[in-house]
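ok, trying the design again with the full structure, not the truncated one.
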């Protein structure tokens, strides 16, 4: 009997401790349960802009935390198609988004065109080579040209279109050095491992080690469009939709434009 009273007494003490305002155990548990973390798979060229947007979004939406997975759009597409976790996808081309939508991976009701970009030719800042336009890449003193791998890296696809439409692709093909993301193209030129490279204007703007020598005319390549959508298998679809919608608001648009992006119409 004494043992039963003792256990009841201990139970009462424990209950009082758990309910104590100073402990806030249940409050902490509830708060944790309400906080959702989303993973955004985004094109490498968006890294700087999205990193700047993140703290502003999380301040405005305290219960949503954002993690990023940056890479070539083609590689991200394959990851999602193979079942890798992701809540939002932002591609640097419609090709990858369309493929995922066709395969049923995308919540098409959330899909929209978010941004546009421009394609530029860059050289190392201290370059002494006479490279003034894309046709200059045929010069004999230009030995290595960094471009994205066209099958998986959208900037490589656009670059190939420009070179083909200018009629110089086959002539300079032996000089091409392929990279698995636009940031690796940029790095190759920054370090002098390539005499020139083709990147987005937004990538050129973040580096003080390269200079832009030419901008590709829009009629030389497909429209550079960045679509965004929520992944159908998202574990936190409402939080994902909230983030996707935030990227269309003025605060986010201002940051994108600061980094050289244009807003898709």
């Amino acid at each position: 009997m004494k043992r039963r009273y003792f256990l009841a007494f201990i139970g009462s003490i424990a209950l009082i401790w758990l309910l104590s305002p100073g402990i806030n155990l249940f409050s902490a548990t509830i708060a944790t349960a309400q906080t959702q973390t989303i993973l955004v798979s985004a094109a490498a060229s968006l890294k700087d802009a999205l990193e700047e947007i993140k703290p502003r979004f999380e301040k405005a939406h305290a219960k949503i935390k954002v993690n990023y997975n940056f890479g070539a759009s083609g590689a991200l597409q394959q990851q999602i198609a193979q079942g890798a976790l992701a809540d939002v996808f932002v591609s640097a081309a419609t090709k990858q988004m369309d493929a995922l939508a066709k395969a049923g991976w995308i919540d098409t009701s959330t899909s929209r065109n978010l941004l546009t970009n421009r394609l530029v030719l860059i050289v190392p800042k201290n370059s002494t080579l006479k490279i003034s336009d894309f046709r200059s890449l045929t010069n004999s003193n230009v030995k290595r040209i960094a471009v994205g791998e066209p099958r998986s890296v959208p900037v490589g696809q656009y670059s190939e279109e420009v070179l083909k439409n200018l009629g110089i692709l086959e002539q300079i093909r032996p000089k091409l050095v392929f990279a698995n993301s636009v940031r690796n193209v940029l790095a190759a030129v920054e370090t002098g491992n390539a005499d020139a490279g083709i990147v987005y204007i937004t990538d050129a703007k973040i580096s003080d080690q390269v200079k832009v020598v030419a901008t590709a005319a829009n009629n030389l390549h497909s429209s550079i469009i960045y679509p965004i959508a929520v992944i159908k298998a998202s574990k936190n679809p409402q939080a994902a939709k909230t983030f996707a919608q935030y990227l269309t608001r003025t605060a986010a648009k201002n940051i994108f434009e600061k980094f050289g992006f244009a807003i898709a119409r």
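Keeping the full-length input from now on. The chain has a mean pLDDT of 90.
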